[in-house]
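[Automated response] Your request has been received and processed.

Submitted sequence:
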Amino acid sequence: MTAYEATSRPLTEGERTAISTTAAVTGALGLLGFVNSFERVATAAEPSFGWFAWTVPLGIDLGIAAFSALDIVLARLGMRLGWLRFIPWALTASTVYLNVAAYLNTPGPTDWFAVVAHALLPLLWVIAIEVGAHVVRKHAELVRPDRMDGIRRSRWLLAPLATVSLWRRMVLWEIRSYPEALGSERERILARTELQDRYGLLWRWKATRRERALYRLGELTPKHMQLPTVTLPQLEAPSTALPPAAPRRHGRGPKRPQNTTPPNVGDLLPLGRHIAADLISQGEPLTRDRLRDAIRNRGQSISTDRAGALLAQLKAEGPIPEGEAA
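Generated structure:
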């Protein structure tokens, strides 16, 4: 979680213990300063206020606490008044003066030990309240939805002019996130470089009004400046296109289409049946080559393809009848 997010990370158990211990010690010191201040201011105010002298220190200390609490509440509600925090400081200065006035106005040498002691003890009470108020105000600012991130001091030191321009754009365009403002600044620099490459040094006058307006608004990015791509329509092939040429084999002409019609072997079927019956009776297998050679030995011409077709026809007819086998 970054330092610029609106919510703080959850505290660990050790951090909660340290905060509780610190708050208890600070409260004890503040209470001690309140008791000493109350007694000293009441004694100093007794000649003027009589029996009501105790209301002077009580009213001043309660005023410090009340106005500090009021500052915290207004900060939490998003209605904080900047000048309100000066009231507890003025009351603190008043109670410190009332504590040391008796020692400063006495004749003779000033008891500086008493002055420092009576001035320091009331400050403990006020410091405790101011620290608590600062913590609550800071937390209220972190969770405020319209809170604007601050810019790092190191950036102000390294690039003061560029940082002033960045801060100005954050304020003008309500960019509350510091990382978002840095990203927008990078895009703006790249857009300016694109305009300079496109229009030259006089790009502020040669660029279109829309481009200049978008650049001032911080919405002109390099991806918005790319030229649109033109897609050419695809041409349809004419209906009278010639069929594709048959592929040529290496070293040979185009392959001739094979005739899928089986050869006619009807004139050789009777002779084939007799030869098949003879081969079966002799216990020899009926194969294409045996059938071809037997027909050729009978004085008939036959090709290997026709012998294969004749063999397929004989096997399709089933077993050779005994009469034909004789």
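Summary generated for your ticket: Residues 153-225 form one domain. Confidence is low (pLDDT under 50) at residues 1-7, 227-233, 235-242, 321-326.
If you did not submit this request, please reply to this message.
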